[in-house]
Write a structure and sequence with these properties.
Blueprint: H1 2-28, H2 42-45, H3 50-56, E1 59-64, E2 67-72, H4 80-91, E3 94-99, H5 102-110, H6 112-119, H7 141-150, H8 156-166, E4 169-176, E5 181-187, E6 190-197, H9 199-212, E7 224-232, E8 235-246, E9 249-258, H10 272-282, E10 287-292, H11 299-310, E11 317-321, E12 332-335, H12 341-345, H13 347-353, E13 359-360, H14 366-374, E14 380-383, H15 389-399, E15 404-409, H16 416-424, H17 428-434, E16 435-447, E17 464-474, H18 478-485, H19 490-499, H20 505-514, H21 520-527
Parallel strand pairs: 2-3, 10-15, 10-16, 11-12, 11-14, 12-13, 14-15
Antiparallel strand pairs: 1-2, 4-5, 4-9, 5-6, 7-8, 8-9, 16-17
Helix pairs in contact: 4-9, 7-8, 14-15, 17-18, 20-21
Length: 528
């Protein structure tokens, strides 16, 4: 009797829900549909990617030639019109909107995993790790072009990412031009043209990327950042996404962040002298250790390797990063987020995006985050980059008060770090005693093991495959202290570095040339 009564109440509530939605649809002048028990077809349901369907609560349920009927409880949701317009243009169809109940949309969304998965590969999901596990291995650009020509638009993103990973690319760049979209991969530090996409395919592709990365589709006049995770051959891949407006549309850059085992310090190919200097420096309880070099020189990888070495249960380690690229168990990682006008506008959304990336703190620049971190009584602090005087002064002070501080600086050599910090305005009396070690590094292309530079398909006819590290280090001595106190010039620091018998970046590079690992031309193109 009780069960019968509950059933009656549920049916009455459902009838009321549908009646209210029907009345709402009539008021808005839109047709109404009840989708509960509707016989969905995977090919039609899949016209709207699962991420978009979940985010905007909209599904496709019927197709007639170039017209597709779609249903949603909220046809006036912010950004929905623009998203559907983009999807319609990309798919070459016109969407006809219907209004349905919340129960209807929930029923429809539950059909995705069973119906759409059978019709095609499921779309990439943000953070959840859902999707097709096994991808075909792609080892050359020619193979990639062949695969892209054969896959459907819905499989295009997975194919491009699989190709980029197979070719060991670090980034994928989608660059809209006048008549097409250029796709380039960054392989071994160099941008390599991969293929071109028609504008129609890119519109659908970009919508999928931005939806999966939790980037607002209706905001196109400012740059936005996002992140998504995909499973590939049983290995999760994090992808950092940046969308930026250009003359021909939004250009999108994907940074592939493999969740692989972190490289140990001994695996980074530091020359023996520099490796030993690093080990000696990190064995001390305090001091400032700097890694220098231009963007893309492997500084972050080196910092993570040092953190891995220092990461012990009896130590409190705090890292301040922009962005947090890899999660490290046992380390408190803080996402730096300067409070610019745009970021302030979307700070609530950004906090949601960053939950899987470490702690997201809206309005934190490096200096503010460093002040807060010091109040946490850490043993070791990693500052992703020293960009200004305030951050530099706090880092230097921290290193003089019982903390080990690791950071990076954009300088061309190890000796230039001292001149740069003096130029920033760091007090000389602090700087003289703070720095324990400065390491400068570069990544240079390695000769292909398969053809030894003769060029083959495996190295995409470049003669190079993979990269190796060249390095130099500078340990301050009494003469360095004197140079700091009188605010010496860069050339004076350079001269002292050379007279001290230190191995330079160029010398380390030429030694690797002698070992048959790379070429002198490659070394000089990087070091100068």
């Amino acid at each position: 009797m009780t069960n019968d009564l509950q059933s009656v109440v549920r049916n009455f509530d459902r009838q009321q829900e549908e009646q209210q939605v029907g009345a709402f649809a009539a008021q808005k002048g839109l047709p109404y549909i009840n989708l509960v028990s509707y016989p969905f077809v995977g090919d039609i349901l899949g016209l709207i990617p699962k991420e978009t369907a979940n985010q905007y609560k909209i599904v496709a349920f019927l197709r007639s030639d170039k017209t597709v009927r779609v249903a949603t409880p909220d046809p006036f949701a912010p950004g929905l019109g623009q998203v559907m317009s983009g999807l319609g243009k990309a798919a070459g169809v016109k969407f006809e909107p219907f209004i349905c109940s919340q129960t209807s949309i929930n029923y429809a969304l539950e059909r995705y995993d069973t119906l759409v998965a059978k019709a095609k590969k499921p779309p990439i999901s943000a953070h959840t790790g859902e999707g097709q596990n096994q991808q075909k291995v792609i080892n050359s650009l020619n193979q990639l072009k062949d695969e892209v020509s054969r896959v459907s638009t819905t499989e295009l993103l997975e194919t491009l990412i699989s190709g980029a990973i197979g070719l060991e690319a670090s980034d994928i760049h989608f660059e809209p031009m006048a008549n097409s979209v250029h796709v380039r991969f960054r392989i071994d530090g160099r941008l390599v043209p991969a293929l071109e996409l028609p504008e129609k395919s890119y519109k659908l592709l970009s919508s999928r990327i931005k939806t999966a990365a939790k980037i607002k589709l209706d905001i196109q006049h400012v740059a936005q950042d996002g992140r998504m995770t995909i499973p590939l051959n049983d290995s999760p891949f994090d992808i950092r996404v940046n969308a930026m407006p250009t003359s021909y549309g939004q250009t999108i850059e994907l940074r592939l962040l493999s969740n692989h085992q972190f490289l140990q310090l001994e695996q980074l190919n530091f020359n023996p002298e520099t490796l030993q200097a690093i080990i000696n420096a990190v064995s001390r309880p305090e001091g400032l250790i700097l890694f220098t070099g231009p963007t893309g020189s492997g500084k972050t990888t080196s910092l993570y390797a040092v953190l891995q070495l220092l990461n012990k249960p009896d130590r409190k380690i705090v890292s301040l990063e922009d962005p947090v690229e890899y999660r490290i168990e046992g380390i408190e990682q803080v996402q730096i987020q300067p409070a610019t006008e745009v970021q302030a506008q979307y700070s609530a959304e950004k906090e949601k995006q960053e939950k899987t990336r470490g702690t997201s703190v809206a309005g934190f620049d490096f200096a503010e985050a460093l002040k807060a971190a010091l109040r946490q009584d850490p043993d070791i602090i990693m500052v992703g980059e020293i960009r200004d005087r305030e951050t530099a002064e706090i880092a230097v002070n921290a290193s003089l008060t019982g903390h080990m501080v690791l950071s990076t600086l954009h300088t061309n050599s190890s000796s230039a770090a001292f001149a740069r910090l003096i130029q920033m305005g760091v007090p000389k009396y602090l700087l003289a005693d703070a720095i324990t070690l400065v390491v400068a590094q570069r990544l240079v292309r390695k000769l292909c093991d398969n053809c030894h530079g003769a060029k083959c398909e495996r190295c995409n006819n470049t003669g190079f495959h993979g990269r190796i590290l060249i390095s130099e280090h500078y340990q301050p001595d009494s003469q360095t202290v004197e140079l700091i106190k009188r605010e010496a010039t860069l050339s004076e620091f350079d001269k002292h570095f050379q007279e001290s018998g230190n191995k330079s970046l160029l010398q380390d590079g030429l030694e690797k040339v002698a070992q048959g690992l790379t070429t002198e031309e490659e070394i000089r193109s990087v070091v100068g």
